[in-house]
Automatic annotation (TrEMBL), chains A, B:
The protein's name in its UniProt record: N-acetyltransferase domain-containing protein
Transmembrane regions: none
MF term (GO), any: acyltransferase activity, transferring groups other than amino-acyl groups
All copies of domain N-acetyltransferase, residue ranges: 141-291
PANTHER family in alphabetical order: AMINOALKYLPHOSPHONATE N-ACETYLTRANSFERASE-RELATED, AMINOALKYLPHOSPHONATE N-ACETYLTRANSFERASE-RELATED-RELATED
Classification via Pfam families: Acetyltransf_1 (PF00583), MarR_2 (PF12802)
Top-level taxon in the UniProt lineage: Bacteria
Organism: Donghicola eburneus
Keywords (A to Z) from UniProt: Acyltransferase, Transferase
Record bears the keyword Plastid: no
SUPFAM superfamilies: Acyl-CoA N-acyltransferases (Nat), Winged helix' DNA-binding domain
Amino acid sequence: MTHDPISRFRRFARSVTTEVGALDESFLGRGRSLGAARVLNAIGHGHADVADLRTYLNLDSGLLSRLLRQLEGEDLITLSPSPTDARARIAALTLAGKAEFTAYEEISNTRAANLLDRHPHPEALLAAMDLIASALGQDRTVIEERDPRDPQSLFCLNEYYAELGRRLRTGFDVNLSCDPQATDMIPPRGAFLVALSDGMPIGCVGVKGSGAPIAEIKRLWIAPSARGLGMAKRLMTAAETRAKALGIQTLRLDTNSALPEAIRLYQTTGWTEIDRFNDDPYPDFFFEKTL
Amino acid sequence: MTHDPISRFRRFARSVTTEVGALDESFLGRGRSLGAARVLNAIGHGHADVADLRTYLNLDSGLLSRLLRQLEGEDLITLSPSPTDARARIAALTLAGKAEFTAYEEISNTRAANLLDRHPHPEALLAAMDLIASALGQDRTVIEERDPRDPQSLFCLNEYYAELGRRLRTGFDVNLSCDPQATDMIPPRGAFLVALSDGMPIGCVGVKGSGAPIAEIKRLWIAPSARGLGMAKRLMTAAETRAKALGIQTLRLDTNSALPEAIRLYQTTGWTEIDRFNDDPYPDFFFEKTL
DNA sequence: TCATTTGTCTGACTTAAGTCAGGTAAATTG
DNA sequence: CAATTTACCTGACTTAAGTCAGACAAATGA
């Protein structure tokens, strides 16, 4: 058998291992060990405090300490005590460090751009990568509270509107809908949650409150590449927990029969169908849940 | 920007690196260094002679020698001189070695099966993996001459027939077509070439000869995941070179207007359209090329 | 046949990576 | 406030990985 699922998976793993190995090789071209390069890159990507670096890179405290001093010796980073805890130290790139970091980024970006450039269907290739990254990263997906006007929140919301436009027979115009004001989805009135897989937004949900003990769930969206992995359930659970913490006792939501997966989710997670509670033209299904 | 092509590519690379790292970790669970495990696996996958192992694993001769002796000391492999060259040595797994090899395979296969099992659309995930593996592996794709009755050849031929069935408005029944006898595509009359990416067949082409200095190109097929990467051109060039070596002076082929990519390829690579030269019901385009 | 090349092995290295047991100073807790 | 915990550092290790210069025997070519 040469074409069974497992052979195909393993061929994928081999090809990707080769690519990863080649990237590591080109990293070594900058005359620094892979360990030091990883630390430099992690700092450049915003992992500032030493404790964070240690868990992110999964390094022994002694080993990381030495790597940090090596980078400090090369004048690529500075280490200063944390203002809130004089024991902890915070790493920052110097100008030279930023230049080195950019050089490493260039290596990665060039490899990525080359591969995408010479492919006949870059968008298909990227969609495939999204799918695989979501499947592999499902255990590492985190849910974070964000301002709904954040770039990552806006990305989710735009995708959500675009998808509604495609799926509702009538199309979707956000201006005709009961569009929640951003402040209604920010504490203390409400909250907006984004699911991030490796930093990439792959889903969102909003709790739209008014200060009263009743609030609405809005804008539940999951990226196509992440569907079927249980993200909607995780997001809804997180939203309910957050709503409870904000003092909300009852949640309501409206949805559309063109979104059967969503309706099925609500039906199986303790929501009860209720009568129409607004005059928004789009929804035709209404649910309620007591927390 | 959080959703540009390069970010998406790099998110993919990160998630896959984590997965590869986790696999290496579980390999270490068998109490052998990664180097020794890699050698054992390579032998199990048919890399028997030491020289082949050295190039395949890209190892220093001294290092490989030591790893081999370590495995020999564990009674996992035997090393015997090659019958054709008494300097060269050939590695083979002992019974215990086969058991260890299987254990490593199990680790990989279980990880693969787990991931596929818990995904809602395993076939979509696999198609995405095929696409990426073909894109990453395009430089490592090799063209090999095979017997057209080989399992890998048959896989290509079946896919080819299935695809014709989908694309021809009339469907496609191999029995109605001028199906070449396998012996017509085996030296000295002809040849059958298969493109292999990491051992996986992703394309084929046949040269159907009769002993005369005129022969036909048949069964040109490229896997969907590998289209647009120039494989068809590579296969055709290889087929022409092989035909020439078999003493063939003129090549002909028939094709169908439902396959415009193929027709475009022939038109741009030195083929001239000619009159119908057979009464096969399927083709409606005919080409010829003098080598 | 004899010089050269080839395939593998050995011993003596270097280096990166990682482990582990203290040590110091700051923060936290009862 | 004293005891404990936490965050990081240091020194002394081990191990895997990899490099390099020969050594040897078999194969090859003039």
